[in-house]
Specification:
Blueprint: H1 5-13, E1 21-25, H2 30-40, H3 49-63, E2 69-72, H4 78-81, E3 89-93, H5 116-121, E4 126-133, H6 139-158, E5 163-169, H7 179-195, E6 205-208, H8 231-243, E7 249-252, H9 258-271, E8 277-280, H10 282-285, H11 288-295, H12 297-317
Parallel strand pairs: 1-2, 1-8, 2-3, 3-4, 4-5, 5-6, 6-7, 7-8
Helix pairs in contact: 2-11, 3-12, 7-8, 8-9, 11-12
Length: about 325
């Protein structure tokens, strides 16, 4: 596959010296409000904007020296973007957080007042959008989502900005924390990875959760004793998902604990899949929200310098088996 010189240079800006992406994700908006809401015991919409901006800024200052890049968004993250380490690149989210529950299909939307060009002008090296994907979607909804990804891909291509597509599987009417969903999740994710690897979408890097729900994998520390997959089955599902795409892909932590995410990365390594890194968010900093909400900036700074750094270093240690994205985009001779 070919990669333009501009996109190659920008991908290098978010990678380490090996060409592996070890990025910190803190583009959460509604999810972050929910965490603060629970800690402060107030409604989500009552969480002060300034508190979200300050939290992101403190996390980025403390942890970006240990990350090849940070993923932020322009709503609460512009201040934080300017405070990252010089060695850390910048990915920016372009989608509206969440989805309209009154509209079927979890349709994606782009941020008003922003474009790929404007995000690049704000300092972004790469652009990310999130897409909810279900095999239960009607053909009409599926087609609208595909057209949306095509438009974003072309916009990124026009600005020579690498396009990261985050895929979040779901199934209509099924609880995503249930064993029922754990059984259908691998096929949903594999189907999406195969679909959006087609050249028409101009996707450069896929951002995906692991193809299994770790809480239902035998031997996982997240398990309560209910198993859907044996370890052997899980390894095979990792391999099947990797086989359907010729694109580089990286793993997101999907809100699990640091320990569980590292167990998932160990499975990926054991399966021999060629993932190009991680975009790890809550598994690194989630436990610091309560520290900040209760005790303020100085307390979260101390927590990040100890627990936060320990968390991100644990993830980085599991990138030793990751492979450079350039494996899929070799430079011209």
């Amino acid at each position: 596959m070919k990669l333009s010189p501009g996109k190659r240079k920008r991908l290098e800006s978010v990678s380490d010296s090996r060409g592996v992406i070890g990025a910190l994700a803190i583009d959460q908006r509604d999810a972050l409000r929910s965490l603060f809401s629970a800690e402060l015991r107030i409604e989500k919409q009552a969480v002060p904007r300034e508190q979200l901006e300050e939290f992101k800024s403190i996390v980025v200052r403390a942890l970006s020296p240990h990350a090849s890049a940070v993923l932020l968004e322009p709503e609460y993250g512009l201040r934080a973007a300017g405070q990252r380490a010089a060695s850390s690149g910048l990915l920016m989210a372009y989608e509206v957080s969440g989805y309209d529950t009154n509209v079927p299909g979890r349709l994606p939307r782009l941020l008003e007042g922003w474009s790929v060009r404007r995000l690049v002008e704000a300092g972004a090296h790469c652009i990310k959008v999130l897409l909810y994907y279900a095999l239960s979607d009607t053909p009409e909804i599926m087609d609208r989502k595909r057209a949306w990804v095509e438009r974003v891909g072309r916009e990124c291509a026009g600005c020579d900005a690498p396009f990261f597509l985050e895929i979040v599987p779901y199934q209509a009417g099924v609880d995503e924390r249930s064993p029922v969903f754990a059984r259908c999740k691998p096929s949903i994710l594999t189907s999406a990875m195969q679909e959006f690897s087609q050249p028409r979408y101009c996707v450069d890097v896929l951002k995906v959760g692991v193809p299994v729900t770790m809480a239902y994998v035998q031997g996982s520390s997240a398990s309560d004793g209910t198993f859907v997959h044996s370890r052997t089955d899980a390894l095979e599902l990792f391999r099947r998902a990797a086989e359907v795409t010729g694109k580089p892909f990286l793993f997101l932590s999907a809100g699990v604990s640091n320990r569980v995410f590292n167990e998932a990365l160990e499975l990926a390594s054991e399966a021999g899949v060629h993932f190009c890194g991680v975009l790890c968010g809550r598994a690194t900093w989630k436990d610091g929200v309560g520290v900040f909400a209760r005790d303020g900036a100085e307390a979260i700074q101390k927590w990040l310098e100890t627990d936060g750094v320990q968390n991100i270093r644990a993830v980085n240690a599991n990138l030793k088996h990751a492979t450079p994205w350039s494996e899929k985009y070799p430079a011209d001779e």
